Amino acid sequence: MDPRLDAFEVEANALAAAVARGDGPARASVERWLGRPPASGPAALPDVRAALAAAYGVSGWNRLEQACAVCAAIRADDIQRLAELLAENPRLLHENARGTAQCNWGPPLSYAANLGRDQVLEWLLDRGAPDLAHAFDRACLQGRIETARLLHARGARPRRGAVMGPAETQDGAGMEYLLSIGAEIADADGDPWAPVALVLETYCRDATGRGQCLECFARHGIALPDSPTMDFFRRRWDRLFERLRADPELGTRRFSHREIWPPSIGCHADPSLALHGTPLAGATLLHLAVDFDEIGFLRDWLDAGVDPDARAAMDSDGFGGHTALFGTVVSQARSTGSTNGDRAAALLLEHGADPGVRASLRKRIRFHVDETEHVYREVTAAQWGRAFHGRQWVDWAAVERIERAGG
Protein backbone atom coordinates (compact mmCIF):
# COMPACT_ATOMS: atom_id res chain seq x y z
CA MET A 1 0.00 0.00 0.00
CA ASP A 2 1.04 3.61 -0.61
CA PRO A 3 -0.82 5.20 2.30
CA ARG A 4 -3.12 8.09 1.40
CA LEU A 5 -5.41 9.16 4.20
CA ASP A 6 -8.30 10.26 2.01
CA ALA A 7 -8.59 6.77 0.52
CA PHE A 8 -8.54 5.15 3.96
CA GLU A 9 -11.19 7.56 5.22
CA VAL A 10 -13.49 6.73 2.31
CA GLU A 11 -12.99 3.02 2.98
CA ALA A 12 -13.59 3.42 6.74
CA ASN A 13 -16.72 5.53 6.27
CA ALA A 14 -18.22 3.07 3.80
CA LEU A 15 -17.47 0.11 6.06
CA ALA A 16 -18.82 1.93 9.13
CA ALA A 17 -22.05 2.75 7.29
CA ALA A 18 -22.43 -0.94 6.37
CA VAL A 19 -21.85 -1.97 10.00
CA ALA A 20 -24.32 0.65 11.25
CA ARG A 21 -27.09 -0.68 9.05
CA GLY A 22 -26.48 -4.23 10.27
CA ASP A 23 -24.66 -5.69 7.27
CA GLY A 24 -23.57 -9.18 8.42
CA PRO A 25 -20.43 -9.65 6.27
CA ALA A 26 -19.24 -6.14 7.10
CA ARG A 27 -19.63 -6.75 10.86
CA ALA A 28 -17.88 -10.13 10.55
CA SER A 29 -14.97 -8.53 8.68
CA VAL A 30 -14.54 -5.83 11.31
CA GLU A 31 -14.84 -8.35 14.15
CA ARG A 32 -12.16 -10.55 12.57
CA TRP A 33 -9.62 -7.71 12.59
CA LEU A 34 -10.79 -6.04 15.79
CA GLY A 35 -10.93 -9.22 17.85
CA ARG A 36 -14.37 -8.42 19.21
CA PRO A 37 -17.79 -7.34 17.88
CA PRO A 38 -17.86 -3.68 16.79
CA ALA A 39 -20.15 -1.11 18.35
CA SER A 40 -23.47 -0.46 16.68
CA GLY A 41 -24.84 2.64 15.00
CA PRO A 42 -22.74 5.82 14.68
CA ALA A 43 -20.36 4.54 17.38
CA ALA A 44 -19.09 1.95 14.91
CA LEU A 45 -16.66 4.33 13.16
CA PRO A 46 -13.84 4.23 15.79
CA ASP A 47 -14.01 0.42 15.86
CA VAL A 48 -14.02 0.24 12.08
CA ARG A 49 -11.00 2.53 11.91
CA ALA A 50 -9.11 0.37 14.41
CA ALA A 51 -10.02 -2.78 12.47
CA LEU A 52 -9.03 -1.23 9.15
CA ALA A 53 -5.65 -0.19 10.52
CA ALA A 54 -5.10 -3.72 11.79
CA ALA A 55 -6.07 -5.14 8.41
CA TYR A 56 -3.28 -3.09 6.85
CA GLY A 57 -0.81 -4.22 9.50
CA VAL A 58 -0.71 -0.88 11.35
CA SER A 59 -1.03 -0.62 15.14
CA GLY A 60 -3.92 1.85 15.14
CA TRP A 61 -5.74 4.61 13.27
CA ASN A 62 -3.55 7.35 14.76
CA ARG A 63 -0.44 5.52 13.56
CA LEU A 64 -2.03 5.11 10.15
CA GLU A 65 -2.65 8.87 10.02
CA GLN A 66 1.00 9.47 10.91
CA ALA A 67 2.16 7.06 8.22
CA CYS A 68 0.04 8.80 5.61
CA ALA A 69 1.38 12.17 6.68
CA VAL A 70 5.02 11.04 6.63
CA CYS A 71 4.73 9.46 3.21
CA ALA A 72 2.86 12.46 1.80
CA ALA A 73 5.53 14.84 3.12
CA ILE A 74 8.31 12.78 1.54
CA ARG A 75 6.49 12.52 -1.78
CA ALA A 76 5.97 16.29 -1.78
CA ASP A 77 9.56 17.12 -0.71
CA ASP A 78 7.94 18.92 2.24
CA ILE A 79 10.79 18.99 4.74
CA GLN A 80 9.02 21.46 7.03
CA ARG A 81 6.05 19.14 7.45
CA LEU A 82 8.35 16.15 7.96
CA ALA A 83 10.21 18.08 10.66
CA GLU A 84 6.92 18.79 12.44
CA LEU A 85 5.95 15.12 12.37
CA LEU A 86 9.30 13.94 13.71
CA ALA A 87 9.19 16.59 16.45
CA GLU A 88 5.80 15.23 17.53
CA ASN A 89 7.00 11.61 17.40
CA PRO A 90 10.81 11.10 17.11
CA ARG A 91 10.31 7.32 16.78
CA LEU A 92 9.02 7.89 13.24
CA LEU A 93 12.63 8.31 12.10
CA HIS A 94 13.24 4.65 12.94
CA GLU A 95 9.88 3.03 12.15
CA ASN A 96 8.59 1.90 8.80
CA ALA A 97 7.34 4.96 6.92
CA ARG A 98 4.19 3.12 5.88
CA GLY A 99 3.47 2.16 9.45
CA THR A 100 3.66 -1.60 8.96
CA ALA A 101 6.61 -3.85 9.71
CA GLN A 102 5.72 -6.06 6.74
CA CYS A 103 6.60 -3.45 4.11
CA ASN A 104 10.14 -3.55 2.70
CA TRP A 105 10.13 0.15 1.72
CA GLY A 106 11.59 0.82 5.15
CA PRO A 107 11.82 3.89 7.41
CA PRO A 108 11.58 7.45 6.03
CA LEU A 109 15.15 7.49 4.69
CA SER A 110 14.59 4.30 2.69
CA TYR A 111 11.16 5.49 1.60
CA ALA A 112 12.76 8.65 0.24
CA ALA A 113 15.44 6.58 -1.50
CA ASN A 114 12.78 4.49 -3.25
CA LEU A 115 11.34 7.69 -4.70
CA GLY A 116 14.60 9.51 -5.40
CA ARG A 117 13.71 12.38 -3.02
CA ASP A 118 17.30 13.44 -2.49
CA GLN A 119 16.72 16.69 -0.58
CA VAL A 120 14.57 14.87 1.95
CA LEU A 121 17.12 12.08 2.07
CA GLU A 122 20.01 14.48 2.85
CA TRP A 123 17.92 16.13 5.58
CA LEU A 124 17.13 12.77 7.16
CA LEU A 125 20.76 11.68 7.04
CA ASP A 126 21.79 14.86 8.84
CA ARG A 127 19.34 13.95 11.60
CA GLY A 128 20.78 10.51 12.16
CA ALA A 129 18.50 8.29 10.07
CA PRO A 130 19.71 4.76 10.87
CA ASP A 131 18.84 2.83 7.70
CA LEU A 132 21.63 3.93 5.35
CA ALA A 133 22.40 0.44 4.04
CA HIS A 134 18.77 -0.43 3.38
CA ALA A 135 18.18 2.93 1.70
CA PHE A 136 21.13 2.25 -0.60
CA ASP A 137 19.75 -1.18 -1.50
CA ARG A 138 16.34 0.30 -2.26
CA ALA A 139 17.79 3.05 -4.45
CA CYS A 140 19.68 0.45 -6.50
CA LEU A 141 16.63 -1.79 -6.71
CA GLN A 142 14.52 1.10 -8.03
CA GLY A 143 17.20 2.29 -10.46
CA ARG A 144 17.64 5.59 -8.58
CA ILE A 145 21.29 5.87 -9.52
CA GLU A 146 21.90 9.48 -8.47
CA THR A 147 20.31 8.70 -5.13
CA ALA A 148 22.53 5.64 -4.80
CA ARG A 149 25.58 7.76 -5.61
CA LEU A 150 24.59 10.24 -2.92
CA LEU A 151 24.19 7.47 -0.35
CA HIS A 152 27.49 5.92 -1.41
CA ALA A 153 29.18 9.28 -0.86
CA ARG A 154 27.65 9.33 2.62
CA GLY A 155 29.19 5.97 3.45
CA ALA A 156 26.83 3.30 2.10
CA ARG A 157 28.53 0.25 0.62
CA PRO A 158 26.97 -2.66 -1.30
CA ARG A 159 26.38 -5.65 0.94
CA ARG A 160 26.66 -9.22 -0.27
CA GLY A 161 23.41 -9.93 -2.05
CA ALA A 162 22.83 -6.29 -3.04
CA VAL A 163 22.55 -7.28 -6.71
CA MET A 164 19.43 -9.32 -5.94
CA GLY A 165 17.42 -6.07 -5.82
CA PRO A 166 18.03 -4.94 -9.40
CA ALA A 167 17.93 -8.59 -10.47
CA GLU A 168 14.38 -8.85 -9.14
CA THR A 169 13.29 -5.59 -10.78
CA GLN A 170 15.36 -6.32 -13.91
CA ASP A 171 16.91 -2.88 -13.59
CA GLY A 172 19.93 -2.69 -15.85
CA ALA A 173 21.07 0.73 -14.63
CA GLY A 174 20.99 -0.34 -11.00
CA MET A 175 22.88 -3.54 -11.79
CA GLU A 176 25.53 -1.71 -13.82
CA TYR A 177 26.08 0.82 -11.05
CA LEU A 178 26.41 -1.80 -8.32
CA LEU A 179 28.93 -3.81 -10.31
CA SER A 180 30.89 -0.65 -11.14
CA ILE A 181 31.50 -0.03 -7.43
CA GLY A 182 32.54 -3.57 -6.71
CA ALA A 183 29.35 -5.37 -5.73
CA GLU A 184 29.63 -9.15 -5.82
CA ILE A 185 27.49 -11.12 -8.24
CA ALA A 186 25.94 -13.35 -5.60
CA ASP A 187 23.05 -13.58 -3.19
CA ALA A 188 23.47 -13.09 0.56
CA ASP A 189 24.70 -16.69 0.85
CA GLY A 190 27.36 -16.20 -1.81
CA ASP A 191 25.63 -18.14 -4.61
CA PRO A 192 26.83 -16.54 -7.88
CA TRP A 193 23.99 -18.06 -9.92
CA ALA A 194 21.14 -16.81 -7.75
CA PRO A 195 20.99 -13.32 -9.32
CA VAL A 196 21.22 -14.80 -12.82
CA ALA A 197 18.35 -17.18 -12.14
CA LEU A 198 16.30 -14.40 -10.57
CA VAL A 199 16.68 -12.16 -13.63
CA LEU A 200 15.45 -15.02 -15.81
CA GLU A 201 12.72 -16.45 -13.59
CA THR A 202 11.05 -13.36 -12.17
CA TYR A 203 8.11 -12.01 -14.11
CA CYS A 204 9.01 -9.71 -16.97
CA ARG A 205 8.97 -6.24 -15.45
CA ASP A 206 11.34 -4.84 -18.07
CA ALA A 207 12.51 -6.88 -21.06
CA THR A 208 15.18 -4.31 -21.95
CA GLY A 209 16.43 -4.21 -18.38
CA ARG A 210 16.56 -8.00 -18.22
CA GLY A 211 18.82 -8.04 -21.25
CA GLN A 212 21.00 -5.31 -19.76
CA CYS A 213 21.39 -7.24 -16.51
CA LEU A 214 22.48 -10.35 -18.38
CA GLU A 215 24.97 -8.36 -20.43
CA CYS A 216 26.37 -6.92 -17.18
CA PHE A 217 26.84 -10.43 -15.83
CA ALA A 218 28.57 -11.56 -19.01
CA ARG A 219 30.97 -8.58 -18.94
CA HIS A 220 31.83 -9.39 -15.34
CA GLY A 221 32.79 -12.99 -15.99
CA ILE A 222 29.55 -14.97 -15.69
CA ALA A 223 29.57 -17.67 -18.39
CA LEU A 224 26.08 -17.71 -19.87
CA PRO A 225 24.98 -20.56 -22.16
CA ASP A 226 25.50 -20.11 -25.89
CA SER A 227 21.95 -20.94 -26.94
CA PRO A 228 19.06 -19.43 -28.90
CA THR A 229 17.00 -18.99 -25.75
CA MET A 230 19.80 -17.12 -23.98
CA ASP A 231 20.26 -14.97 -27.10
CA PHE A 232 16.55 -14.21 -26.77
CA PHE A 233 16.79 -13.20 -23.12
CA ARG A 234 19.91 -11.13 -23.84
CA ARG A 235 18.06 -9.50 -26.76
CA ARG A 236 20.83 -10.44 -29.16
CA TRP A 237 18.54 -10.20 -32.17
CA ASP A 238 21.30 -10.13 -34.81
CA ARG A 239 22.70 -13.37 -33.42
CA LEU A 240 19.26 -15.01 -33.49
CA PHE A 241 18.67 -14.07 -37.11
CA GLU A 242 22.13 -15.42 -38.00
CA ARG A 243 21.10 -18.68 -36.38
CA LEU A 244 17.82 -18.66 -38.33
CA ARG A 245 19.61 -18.13 -41.65
CA ALA A 246 21.94 -21.01 -40.84
CA ASP A 247 19.08 -23.23 -39.63
CA PRO A 248 15.59 -22.30 -40.95
CA GLU A 249 14.07 -24.95 -38.66
CA LEU A 250 14.95 -22.75 -35.68
CA GLY A 251 11.66 -20.95 -36.28
CA THR A 252 9.67 -24.01 -35.25
CA ARG A 253 12.19 -25.58 -32.89
CA ARG A 254 10.72 -26.44 -29.48
CA PHE A 255 12.67 -25.74 -26.34
CA SER A 256 12.26 -27.71 -23.13
CA HIS A 257 11.87 -26.02 -19.78
CA ARG A 258 15.49 -26.90 -19.00
CA GLU A 259 16.67 -25.26 -22.21
CA ILE A 260 14.76 -22.06 -21.49
CA TRP A 261 15.64 -21.94 -17.78
CA PRO A 262 18.83 -24.05 -17.42
CA PRO A 263 19.49 -25.64 -14.00
CA SER A 264 23.20 -25.17 -14.73
CA ILE A 265 22.81 -21.44 -14.07
CA GLY A 266 20.66 -21.80 -10.97
CA CYS A 267 17.16 -22.03 -12.44
CA HIS A 268 14.52 -24.24 -10.81
CA ALA A 269 13.31 -27.52 -12.26
CA ASP A 270 9.74 -26.69 -11.19
CA PRO A 271 8.15 -24.94 -14.20
CA SER A 272 5.80 -22.95 -11.98
CA LEU A 273 8.72 -21.09 -10.40
CA ALA A 274 9.71 -19.55 -13.73
CA LEU A 275 7.03 -16.88 -13.78
CA HIS A 276 5.15 -16.71 -17.06
CA GLY A 277 1.58 -16.94 -18.35
CA THR A 278 0.65 -19.48 -21.01
CA PRO A 279 2.83 -22.61 -20.54
CA LEU A 280 6.24 -22.33 -22.20
CA ALA A 281 7.78 -25.76 -21.61
CA GLY A 282 8.24 -27.16 -25.11
CA ALA A 283 7.52 -23.78 -26.72
CA THR A 284 9.15 -21.97 -29.64
CA LEU A 285 10.84 -18.59 -29.67
CA LEU A 286 7.59 -17.22 -31.07
CA HIS A 287 5.81 -18.29 -27.87
CA LEU A 288 8.54 -16.69 -25.75
CA ALA A 289 8.31 -13.42 -27.69
CA VAL A 290 4.60 -13.16 -26.93
CA ASP A 291 4.78 -13.96 -23.22
CA PHE A 292 7.83 -11.77 -22.60
CA ASP A 293 6.37 -8.79 -24.45
CA GLU A 294 9.02 -8.61 -27.18
CA ILE A 295 6.72 -7.15 -29.83
CA GLY A 296 9.50 -5.81 -32.06
CA PHE A 297 11.21 -9.19 -32.22
CA LEU A 298 7.86 -10.92 -32.76
CA ARG A 299 7.14 -8.73 -35.80
CA ASP A 300 10.60 -9.24 -37.30
CA TRP A 301 10.56 -13.00 -36.59
CA LEU A 302 7.22 -13.33 -38.38
CA ASP A 303 8.43 -11.16 -41.26
CA ALA A 304 11.34 -13.57 -41.64
CA GLY A 305 8.84 -16.29 -42.56
CA VAL A 306 8.51 -18.14 -39.27
CA ASP A 307 5.30 -20.21 -39.12
CA PRO A 308 2.74 -18.24 -37.04
CA ASP A 309 1.01 -21.54 -36.17
CA ALA A 310 4.12 -23.28 -34.84
CA ARG A 311 2.89 -25.48 -32.01
CA ALA A 312 4.42 -26.12 -28.64
CA ALA A 313 5.30 -29.71 -27.75
CA MET A 314 2.61 -31.98 -26.32
CA ASP A 315 3.46 -33.86 -23.15
CA SER A 316 2.72 -37.49 -22.35
CA ASP A 317 -0.62 -36.51 -20.75
CA GLY A 318 -1.82 -34.74 -23.89
CA PHE A 319 -1.30 -31.19 -22.66
CA GLY A 320 0.35 -28.63 -24.93
CA GLY A 321 0.28 -28.27 -28.69
CA HIS A 322 -0.84 -24.64 -28.45
CA THR A 323 0.24 -21.86 -30.78
CA ALA A 324 1.68 -18.47 -29.85
CA LEU A 325 -1.80 -16.99 -30.25
CA PHE A 326 -2.72 -18.57 -26.90
CA GLY A 327 -0.01 -16.51 -25.22
CA THR A 328 -1.49 -13.26 -26.48
CA VAL A 329 -4.55 -13.72 -24.28
CA VAL A 330 -2.88 -15.10 -21.13
CA SER A 331 0.54 -13.69 -20.29
CA GLN A 332 2.55 -12.65 -17.26
CA ALA A 333 3.22 -9.33 -18.98
CA ARG A 334 -0.51 -8.58 -18.97
CA SER A 335 -0.65 -9.07 -15.20
CA THR A 336 1.90 -6.26 -14.79
CA GLY A 337 0.01 -3.79 -16.97
CA SER A 338 1.13 -4.50 -20.51
CA THR A 339 -1.41 -3.96 -23.28
CA ASN A 340 0.73 -5.60 -25.97
CA GLY A 341 -1.27 -8.84 -26.09
CA ASP A 342 -3.72 -7.34 -28.54
CA ARG A 343 -0.87 -6.02 -30.71
CA ALA A 344 0.74 -9.46 -30.68
CA ALA A 345 -2.56 -11.12 -31.62
CA ALA A 346 -2.99 -8.67 -34.50
CA LEU A 347 0.51 -9.43 -35.80
CA LEU A 348 -0.01 -13.18 -35.63
CA LEU A 349 -3.41 -12.98 -37.34
CA GLU A 350 -2.03 -10.68 -40.04
CA HIS A 351 0.63 -13.30 -40.74
CA GLY A 352 -1.98 -16.04 -41.10
CA ALA A 353 -2.33 -17.52 -37.61
CA ASP A 354 -5.36 -19.81 -37.30
CA PRO A 355 -7.71 -18.55 -34.54
CA GLY A 356 -9.51 -21.92 -34.40
CA VAL A 357 -6.57 -24.06 -33.21
CA ARG A 358 -7.50 -26.06 -30.10
CA ALA A 359 -5.27 -27.37 -27.34
CA SER A 360 -5.47 -28.74 -23.81
CA LEU A 361 -3.58 -26.75 -21.19
CA ARG A 362 -2.96 -26.85 -17.46
CA LYS A 363 -1.60 -24.00 -15.38
CA ARG A 364 -0.55 -23.31 -11.82
CA ILE A 365 0.07 -19.66 -10.90
CA ARG A 366 2.63 -19.28 -8.13
CA PHE A 367 2.43 -16.48 -5.54
CA HIS A 368 -1.23 -15.99 -6.43
CA VAL A 369 -4.33 -16.21 -4.26
CA ASP A 370 -5.12 -19.52 -6.00
CA GLU A 371 -2.02 -21.70 -6.48
CA THR A 372 -3.90 -24.86 -7.46
CA GLU A 373 -3.42 -26.35 -10.92
CA HIS A 374 -6.30 -25.67 -13.30
CA VAL A 375 -7.04 -27.77 -16.38
CA TYR A 376 -8.52 -26.53 -19.67
CA ARG A 377 -9.33 -29.13 -22.32
CA GLU A 378 -9.66 -28.62 -26.07
CA VAL A 379 -9.99 -24.86 -25.96
CA THR A 380 -9.26 -22.26 -28.61
CA ALA A 381 -7.03 -19.31 -27.74
CA ALA A 382 -10.08 -17.11 -27.07
CA GLN A 383 -11.73 -19.81 -24.93
CA TRP A 384 -8.48 -20.20 -22.99
CA GLY A 385 -8.68 -16.51 -22.13
CA ARG A 386 -12.39 -16.55 -21.31
CA ALA A 387 -12.00 -19.47 -18.93
CA PHE A 388 -8.64 -18.65 -17.33
CA HIS A 389 -8.74 -18.48 -13.54
CA GLY A 390 -6.25 -15.62 -13.16
CA ARG A 391 -8.34 -12.78 -14.56
CA GLN A 392 -5.60 -10.15 -14.36
CA TRP A 393 -3.48 -12.31 -16.69
CA VAL A 394 -6.05 -12.01 -19.50
CA ASP A 395 -5.85 -9.46 -22.33
CA TRP A 396 -9.52 -9.02 -23.15
CA ALA A 397 -8.82 -6.93 -26.25
CA ALA A 398 -6.81 -9.85 -27.64
CA VAL A 399 -9.63 -12.28 -26.78
CA GLU A 400 -12.14 -10.13 -28.63
CA ARG A 401 -9.86 -9.69 -31.64
CA ILE A 402 -9.40 -13.46 -31.95
CA GLU A 403 -13.13 -14.02 -31.60
CA ARG A 404 -13.80 -11.52 -34.38
CA ALA A 405 -11.34 -13.46 -36.53
CA GLY A 406 -13.40 -16.61 -36.00
CA GLY A 407 -11.72 -18.15 -32.95
How would you portray this structure in words?
The chain has 407 residues and is mostly helical. It contains 23 helices and two strands. It has three domains: 5-56, no CATH class; 63-157, Serine Threonine Protein Phosphatase 5, Tetratricopeptide repeat, CATH 1.25.40.20; 247-404, Alpha Horseshoe (Serine Threonine Protein Phosphatase 5, Tetratricopeptide repeat). It is 51% helix and 3% strand. Helix 1 (5-20) crosses helix 3 (44-55), helix 8 (132-141) packs antiparallel against helix 9 and helix 18 runs parallel beside helix 21. It is globular. 45% of the residues are buried. The model has no long low-confidence stretch (mean pLDDT 94).
